[in-house]
Amino acid sequence: MKKSALIVGIVGILAISYTGSSWYFGSKIKHTVYETLPVIQQRLNDILADNDLFYDKEIQLVISEYEQNIFSSDLKVEIVLIDNYGLTQKEIKLLDSKEPYSYEELARFSDNLTIYHGPFPISSILKGDLIPKQALLTYQLTKTPKFIQKAIDNKPLLTLETNFDFNDNSHVIIETPPINIKNRDYSLTVSANKVILDQSTDGDLLNQHSDLIIKNIDFTVYSPYFDIIFKLDNFNLQSNVNYDFIKKNFSATAKMQTNEFSITDKSETSVRFKDILLLTNQDTINSTGTINFDIGSITYSEQNLGKFNTKLSYHAKDSRDFFENMELDVENISLETSQGTLKAQYKNKYFMKSDLYYDPSDIFSENEFNELNIETHVSLPAKALALLSSQLQNKHQIISFPDLFIDPKRQIASNWLTTRESYTYNDYTFYPFFVINEDNNSIESNIIISLEDNKMIINGKSIDYDYTQRVIDNFDKDLFFSYYINIPEVDKVYEE
User: What is the reported pTM?
Assistant: First the structure.
């Protein structure tokens, strides 16, 4: 037999095998799509049912068209969002058996998708990808208004590509083109962006990893009175999600970071946040979570205000009444400046009035406060407050410490307080929220309220919680915000 005939025979066999396997996978994919779509719909609705905001909403997924070819299939899926008025599926079926039940349709969307059949989807082969897979799904969102089409240079607003391996795991890439919009009211420039989503399932367990990448966003609003410019540089959001559909447990971690976010107005006043990092962890079955938020530097026009950090954790006794039965522990809120660190800590078990002026007897008389425990710790160095106040007042003048622009009056801790001692007036005893730490020249506040131990301690003083007691906010905000540019010589009146 001639070699040419042998080669033709081999090619023919491979072509027939490839065609046959593609048709086989196409048939298998079609069966899988019709079989799994109701499961996906049910799981989506389970998630909505567990959410207080969307418990009365329902998603319907419908295949309106399906055309299977040899190497690919074309289908149209309709996504319908309806209002089911909070009824369960059992209640709806009972209603339907008696008389037609009318849903309120809130939204409907449909578009065409293409599925390239495995084991070697032709779309992957054309890109040089020879890794076997069940299918490759592609989608392009082209139904957009004309002004958006112009802004994206007539490209698809969204493209999606999804690979499915032989273990039913998926790898999704969603991309958007650069966007450029400019008119008399605003301008918007957005880089080409990408979302990568990896998903795996194991029975009723769903594992999902996502990665959102935005290189930059520039958004300017034009107005006769002011212009505002928003800028975002190198934004990245990564998340890991685990969902148990049997236990209905949702756990997630997220990491968000960006090089810079800034806001600038027409007068060139700007606020810039650099090196932002946010880490979160959440577990719904245990109703717990943690948040860690860092900002490398906060700049107000020409002033570097300092480095910000906050750490907190929370635990809800009952996830159904999350905000009414929660333990909150703010381990740290701090702004680190060159003249000291402004910092605070806060612990709250269950519910607390947010006012700084209240009747302590109310806390212990109401039944809803049966397990109330509160701790607050605040430390504000006077020189750090003076520097911060000066920087906010002199945004375009670079300030160092000490400097003529730093008001000497603001460097004395006692001058920040309107009241420093407890006093009695009209049969009421008033206790200041803030006190002076003379050793550190700082303003501090330490308050402990515990119903379990039957005590209330205000800055080291144990007080009776009856109707004659009051706690007052004694911080002089006018001193912080009063405007000045040039400060006169230090006068003895500043000392008390």
Answer: 0.76
